[in-house]
Amino acid sequence: MGVEVGTVLDVRLRDMREQKRLSRDALAALAGIAPSTIYKLERGLGQRPQPRVARLLAQALGVEPDAIDELRDTYIPPGVASPE
Fold first, then answer.
1. Which partner for 60 in 31, 39, 41, 55 could form a disulfide, CB atoms 3.0-4.6 Å apart?
2. What local confidence, expressed as pLDDT, does residue 26 receive?
């Protein structure tokens, strides 16, 4: 039986943000995106982030874009059971 999940992105993004000691608002300002976007990503509520948003987040967090792209690839839409 599969477990309903949002994405690994939610936990990892929050962890990366907290390691940099950034609030959601501060990360949003650095990335030039809406704070609600970060909130949704961290809660697994939104859709997989577009490549442009992923690049902006990576730059703002000071990580390689591959780190965010890897997280994008693990995205499972809310309400979809993960593969067994």
1. 31
2. 97
CB contact at 8 A, 69 and 59? no
Q: Rounded CA gap, 19 and 83, in Å?
A: 30
Full-model pTM? 0.72
Which residue, 16, 43, 39, 19, is CA-closest to 28? 39
DSSP-assigned letter for residue 46 = S
Rounded distance between C-alpha atoms, residue 62 and residue 43, angstroms: 22
The CATH number of residue 19's host domain is 1.10.260.40
| Residue found by looking up tokens 């390689």 in the block | 64
Asked, for residue 82, whether it belongs to a domain, the answer is: no
Within-domain flag for 20: yes
34-66: pLDDT as tens digits? 999 999 888 877 677 788 888 899 899 988 877
pLDDT surpasses 70 at 81? no
Q: Does 52 map to a domain?
A: yes
